[in-house]
């Protein structure tokens, strides 16, 4: 990688440099209130009306002059003449005076001259006479105009991100339009000879461009950006430079994906170095995402993301999105919770680790499990429900350490399934899968977890399953065997060493060319796509991929 990454910048310093170079936005636009969700207000807003807009009843009952019934009781009821009725949406009527009452529904306007409401349940009616059994104070069960918001009161601060609560209050005051900061224009450019578009026919050696679609959808979900995708560019210097020039001229921010490292085909850092002031840093002490670039052309911002999917998304979450919002004078924060690690987390000393996290909620506490994999394993993001930013000073974050987790959504599972991967997981009822997380582990860790009664369900496929008084044991047989494209094979695939299926498989393959995979489903996929000749996996995967299957035996989970 040459000399480019010999002087990496710290994560916190990278954050600070980006933040300091984000010039504040002042341009605004007026939009319909119905389109304002997540937009940033451009001014303080003051109410043009009282809330409630008029004095209204909080009950179904009778509007009275409170002094008329000040001595009313069950032993001394007071009778008033019913002199009329009002309805929702009608303008206030005049109260006819002492000795009389008017029927008013919940939400109806209080008659002018009355000063209290009496619920139906504290009265009785006989013809046109209403009998009152209780006295009430002035303003009983009345929401007076302006008791919530007074006309002229500030109801929204400048630089507030509007949500449905703000919109409800603004609409209640009669507002239909609002001045907000304009959207930021962002261009996205994907680079790489290996990329093809989702939907294209697959070609060996190519990969579908998932990064651009993920980044575009994430930015669009925030409703403050106009995002233009410039498509996929091959590794050609002039082609990439022309596209970056076009995006820089037409947008506030340009995001490139790929070509940020130091290989012969990596063009982006060379092109960005030609701008003024050019590259402000190239390379961050962060895992994943080390080849990240931050550059400027005049006042225009350019982010150069690495090509691996997890790297690009984690940099987007941690360094780009929060800093883009600083342009609006808005402090963007993810929802955070405190959680306790339920295993030792692997770290990279001297770096900031961006850890994808699986969260579990138990007894009003949150517990965190690390989602393992490399920076190209994009499914890790889908399997996570949050991420943590850890400045790593040791090789491990010890079990039971409290950490902060930025959550992607509020759907935190409360059922823990622990053990070895099995087709049984996919056959579980939908409502169980929706409310659960699966943590894969080896035999010794499973036994320790069972002793501590940590999980709701354990899945094991070892021959000598443990007896445990805290759990009922149900044995289910799952057929496994050879899946193959040809019987005479050179390469074979089995599950990784230490998995239960590995113990049943390793002595049944007559070859030294063995591929160890993480998932029994992937074994069938490898055979189907001729990445290997044969594999040992479960029968249901053979059926799913329409492969030849030779039964070996049943594994009992």
Automatic annotation (TrEMBL):
The organism of origin for this protein: Acidiplasma cupricumulans
Gene Ontology molecular-function annotations: molybdopterin molybdotransferase activity
Domain of life of the native organism: Archaea
Official protein name in the record: MoaB/Mog domain-containing protein
BP-aspect Gene Ontology terms: Mo-molybdopterin cofactor biosynthetic process
InterPro entries recorded: MoaB/Mog-like_dom_sf, MoaB/Mog_dom, MoCF_biosynth_CS, MoeA-like, MoeA_C_domain_IV, MoeA_C_domain_IV_sf, MoeA_linker/N, MoeA_linker/N_sf
Keywords: Molybdenum cofactor biosynthesis
GO cellular component, one term: cytoplasm
Record has Transcription as a keyword: no
